[in-house]
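sorry for the late reply, my laptop died twice this morning and i had to redo everyting from scratch. anyway the thing you sent over, i finally got around to it. pasting the sequence first so we're on the same page, its 698 residues, then the predicted structure underneath. double check i copied it right bc i was rushing
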Amino acid sequence: MSTEEKSLHFIEQIIEDSLASGFPQDKLRFRFPPEPNGYLHIGHAKSICLNFGLGLRYNAPVNLRFDDTNPAKEEQEYVDAIKEDLLWLGFNWAEERYASDYFQQLYDWALLMIKNGKAYVDSQSSEDMAAQKGTPTQPGVDGPYRNRSIEENLTLFEAMKNGDFPEGSHVLRAKIDMTSKNMLLRDPLMYRVLHRHHHRTGNDWKIYPMYDFAHGESDYIEQISHSICTLEFVMHRELYNWFLDQIYDATKVRPNQYEFARLNLNYTVMSKRKLLQLVQENIVNGWDDPRMPTISGLRRRGYTAKSIRNFCETIGVAKRENVIDVSLLEFCLREDLNKTAPRVMAVLDPVKLVITNYPEGKEEWLEAENNQEDDAAGFRKVPFSRELYIEREDFLEVAPAKFFRLSIGNEVRLKNGYIIKGESVTKDANGVITEIQVTYDEDSRSGSGSEASQRKVAGTLHWVSISHAIEAEVRLYDRLFIDEAPDSHKEKNFLDFMNTTSLEVVKGFVEPSLADVNANDKFQFQRLGYFNVDKDTTTSKLVFNKTVGLKDAWEEKGKKEENLLMNTLKEINKYVKEKDETAALIILKPIVDNIKSIDNYSLIINTIVKNIKNDNNALLFANLILKYSDKVAAKDIELESLTKLYSMSLKSQLVSVRILVLENLKEDNENLNNFQSQLSELKTSEKNEKVLELLKAI
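ok and here's the structure:
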C-alpha cells in the first residue's frame, strides 16, 4: 500500500474501512468492464484511472472484462481499440475476460432461478409489459404469464435457447416484486431472444443475458471485491444484490457495488450513441477524428497519456455530478507539452519578406534552443537567407499604438536572428500585399554579444527561410461544438450546435529540421501552439494537427462575449433616451450587430431569462435578442419564462418594447393564441400608431 501523504478519496476510504474490518488484502480485486459497442472516450479515462489506480495503490489485480452481451451493437474492432487505448494510457490488466465466457454458467443460473420460482418466461409485447410496470408513483401489476408453471417455463426457456422462437416473442424475467418502489425490481428482464452473430461465440447462442443480470454475476465469477461504477447505477445496486442473493456461496467473496460521479465535460457529448451518429453520418472522419472526445481521437490530436492521467487525478473522485471545464483538460496538456515538446518555427499564413541589404545567395545557420524548459534538449541549427516567410498577421503598413509586430518604419527581431526594419511593400492588383521589403542590422544577430544585439525592440517574429522551407498540410482543429452543453437543450438537436469552423486545412511551411518526423511526434510551433504529426504523414507529405493553442482562446472568447453583452445592455439606455429617430437607429445598429455576433447559445438563453423583469430597458434587451439572434427562437425558451416575457412586454411603458414584442409574437404562431385577450385589451388602450398597425396585422 502507498505510504505517501495524501488525503483519500471516498472509494479509497471504503477500501481502507474494508481492510480495517478484516477483509484480506490479498482478496482485493478490481475490474474495468467496458461494453465493446464503441470507442472509449475521455469519460472512460476517469474510470480507467480510478480502477487501475486502485490496483496500483493496493497491489491488487485489475481485470479487463468486456461486457459483450449484446451482439447487435458489439464488434471486434471495438475490443481491439479499447485494449490499445488502455495500453497507451499506461495500464496493464491482470486477466482479459469476457462476459461471453460465462454464457453457459449464466444460463445454468437462470435455470436454477426458474426451478426456484424466481424467474419466468413472459410472452407479452414490450408495450404491454411497460404498461403493467406502472410509474414511480403507481405500483405495477402482475402480467398474465407471471404464474406459469416451472415445467412450462423450463420448456419455453430451452426452446428460446434452441432458436425455436423469433426475436421479441419471449423474454425471461426475474420474479421479484411488481409493486416495489424501485421500478428496476419490478420483474426485470434477464434474457431476450436475439438471432445475431456474436463476435466471439459465433452463432452458438440464440438468447443473450441482459446487462443487469450478467454484470453482477460476472463480478462474482471473477471474485471482484469492489465493483465500482458511475452514479446512474445507484438504483441498480438493489437489483445487483438481489441477483447475487440467488447464487451466492458464503465461502466466496461477495462483490459490493459502489458508485462515483462520472466525468461530464463541457463543449462535447459523451453518449456513445451520439458519438456513433457523428461517425455514421460522416460529420467527423471516424472514431479517431482529432475533434472527437475519444481516447483515440485525443491521441491523434496530440494529447499525451500523462496529461490525461494528470487531468483525471486533478478532478478527483466525487459522489456528486458536476461539469468539468474542458479548459482544465487543455491546461493539463499544455503543462505537459511545455516541458517535453521541442520548439520549432512554422508559418501557416505566409507572406514573403525580402531583406534588401542581405547579400543575394548568402545563407547562414543560426543556433536555436530546442526547449528552454528542458536543459537536456540542447540546440539545433536553422537556415537563414535573404528571402523569408513570416505570418501575414505579423505585418501592418500603418500600425496602431500597441501593435508590437512589424510595420513600415518600425523595428522587430527575427527569432534567433537579426533586427529588421520595415521599409516598403509590393501589392497585387487587388491591393493585397505580396511582398514586404525590409533592411537588417548586420551587427544585431541574437547571441552575438554585440551592442546592437542588446537593443530592445517592440517584438519578436518567427519565420522560415523560403529556399529551405518544407511545405506541410496543417489541420487547424477547434472544439466540435459552439455550445457548452450541446445535448442538454429541450427540443434542440445536439447537431444544431456543431462548430462549422472546427476544422480548417491550410498549407504551411516548416523549418527543415522537421523533414524526418514520425507520426505522433509533438512540437511547439513558436507563437502558434502545439502540433502533432498526423498518421497521414508520408515521406512526400507532412501533415500536422493543431493540438492546442498556447493560451485558452475559448476562455478569452467567452469573456469577450459576456462583456460584449453587458456593454450592449448599457447602450440600450442611450437608445431609449434618444428622441431623434435617425440618431436612435444609428445607436441601435451596433446593438443589433453585437447580438448577431454572439455564438454561445447558453449565454444567449441565460441573458434573455435574466432580463425578464420589471425593467423597461431589460425587457427591450430581451426582445431585441429574441428578434435578432439567429441562434435562438421562441421555442427554445421555457414556456413559463417566455409567457412572462410576452406578458410584461405588452404592458411596458416603452413603445419600442411593445413594438418588439408584437413583432416577436407575430413570428410565434405556437403561442400567439394564448395572448388574444391581452392583445384585445391593448387595442382599446393603445395610442401609438405603429403599435396599432402591428396589432391589426396580427
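The two ends are 75 Å apart (CA to CA).
thats about all i looked at so far, will dig more tmrw
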